[in-house]
Amino acid sequence: MKNKTIQLMAKRVAALAMAAVCAFSLTQVPVVEAADKLGAGKYVVPITSLKSKAPIDAVNTAFNKAFGDGANVNVDESGNMTAVVENKHMVVDMMGKYHANILTVEGAEYLSYKTEQSSTTFGDPSKIENIEVPKTIKFPIKPSDKGECKFNITVDFMNNLMGGGKPKLTEVTMTLDFSKAQLDTTELKTLLQSYEQLKKEEYTEESWNAFDAKRKEANNLLASGKASATEVREMIASLKDLRAKLELAQELADADYSKVDIAIASVPKDLTQYTEGTVKTLQDALQAVVRGLKENEQDKVNQMAADIEAAVKGLKKRPASNNGTNNNTNNNTNNNTNHNTKPNTGNTVLDKNNLKDGTYEVPVWLWHATNNQPSMAAQSLNNTARIVVKNGVKTMYIYTKSMKLGNIEASLQELKIAGVNGSYANARVEKRDAKGNPVCFSFTLPNTNEFIKVKVNPHVAIMGNQDIDARLRINYSALKQVSSVQVTKPSAQSSYGASNAPKTGDYNNSSAFLITMLLSAVAGVVVVYRKKQAR
Predict the structure, then answer these.
(1) Rounded to whole angstroms, how far apart are CA atoms 483 and 443?
(2) At what angle do helices 258-265 and 298-313 cross, to 10 degrees?
(3) Is the pTM of this model over 0.70?
């Protein structure tokens, strides 16, 4: 009996021990929040925190909800992730309430803009102005296993507080809770809603039945609440395919585009005088125009016209600035004393501010950020750029190739253009070479001044993979119109580099040579060190 009692107690202790181990194990199992657990698709992911590296509690309190409660996260087939967030206005309560806004996010694309209040003077909260800031921001993220995403931003308040009015980079950490990620079915829902206006009697029975069956299947998939990212993606593709295959029972008349044409004709010829955000809204509306629709989709055509009309009415003039005057003064001085480049003789000089729709070529050089001399990376730039004007919007295309600095070979991987409010936006990569290096960038011209502030990044590790301040120098006096050219392919007549750039007395070849030699020497030391480590 005694032995049985002991055995029973032993079993109970073992059971309790096993329960304790199980409970402990449950507390130790990591929450499934790593980004690589998500398949390709679109998700809504909660933002648990957004913390600034700035050691100021008031700043962090304001920052915490600067991107709202969640981010729309897209995961592509390769696992690369981008986040789309809504930029919220902030109020920093620090010896007075200051209005603050995020102006730039590292590597971001700005999908829309808005006007917000901004405090201009630290120490005097009453000094406020209205500025244009990003509203919807899209940027790449690389979350840790804990969902932490680190990146740099600039904020108007921090610029004034710690940057003396100049852009001051601030590192922030955004933490996403991937364990609560919800599949984003907005695109599928929106697609189904757009099909509600379709009428069965306008299409052949066979094509309509196939389309309608897939539409019912899609609604059932949404209603189940168990759709996977793959199922949603495939369903969207199937619906679009069957919608395109719908056959009209009888030929319908074309939709009336007269309102669209009138709206397009009302677009101002010179958009450089308006703010970047309002111009982008107009460009988006113009690019959304789809020709060839039938009368059964007249509502869509009317909406296109309404969107363009609203965007034209919403254009806002840029604030007055002395920059243009100063630039013109400096440019005239340089033209008279240093420039060897002259406009084509016998040709009429084109008015850069009133260009007709078409394609143009213009000399351009990569110039030092502050000194009147070519940038160290000047050899990477083709000295003929193109400007494509469409509906008054000027888009510049520049062309690049690899360059050598001593033993280092690199090419421009990123190009950022300064906007009217001082913030930088990424230029679009239009074409890459066989190695994946960009060879053609495009961007909307922020102005038609001789100099445009830019940031270039060749992604050279030894240089810190950092953005380098520079300027694009554009010789509009030699602007000429061309035709029948492939805009992503550089001009055959132009040469690479600064060899044909206007020379100035400030350019010091020996300095550039010393810097190149220094970079080569450092690269050699790194190679030797790595070889020793490998032994």
Answers:
(1) 20
(2) 10
(3) no
Query: How is residue 495 written in tokens?
Result: 């040469």
| Beta-ladder partners of 88 | none
Both tokens of 54, joined, read 């700035």
Which residue from 88, 89, 87, 96 is spatially nearest to 123, judged by alpha carbons?
96
With tokens 């201009």, the residue in question is: 120
The tokens describing 460, both together, are 């050279």
Strands 128-141 and 109-119, how do they pair? antiparallel
What pLDDT does residue 529 have? 43
Pick from 501, 355, 487: nearest CA to 428: 487
According to DSSP, the residues that pair with 389 across neighbouring strands are 358, 394
**Paired sense of beta strands 148-155 and 102-105, if any:** antiparallel
Separation CA 85–CA 476 (nearest Å)? 39
CA distances in angstroms from 168 to 105, 155, 408, 469, listed in the order given: 12, 8, 30, 14
- The CA distance from 144 to 141, in Å, is 10
Q: Which residues are paired to 102 by β-bridges? A: 155
| Whole-angstrom Cα Rg for the chain | 29
Query: SS3 letters for 261-326?
Result: HHHHHCCCCCCCCECHHHHHHHHHHHHCCCCCCEHHHHHHHHHHHHHHHHHHHCCCECCCCCHHHH
At residue 132's C-alpha, the angle toward residues 129 and 135, to 5°, is 130
Give the SS3 label for residue 439: strand
427 in Cβ contact with 440 (< 8 Å): no
Low-confidence ranges of the chain (pLDDT < 50): 1-2, 5-6, 8-34, 322-347, 462, 496-535
Tokens representing 514 are 């010393």
Q: From 424, 491, 488, select the one nearest 456 (Cα to Cα).
A: 424
CA 299/CA 306 separation, integer angstroms = 10
pLDDT at position 493, please? Answer: 61
> At 4, is the secondary structure helix, strand, or coil?
helix
In degrees, to the nearest 5, what angle opens at C-alpha 204 toward C-alphas 203 and 205? Answer: 115
Determine the length of the chain. Answer: 535
Q: How far apart are CA 474 and CA 454, in angstroms?
A: 13
pLDDT value of position 46: 94
Phi, psi (5° rounding) for residue 386? -120, 150
Q: What per-residue string of b and e applies to 52-77 under the rule 16 or more CB within 10 Å gives b?
A: bebeeeebbebbeebbeebbbbbbee
Instruction: Please name which of 365, 331, 337 lies closest in space to residue 500, comparing C-alpha atoms.
Output: 365
CA distances from 273 to 220, 277, 353, 418, 419 (A): 51, 12, 10, 15, 12
Phi and psi at residue 289, to the nearest 5°: -70, 125
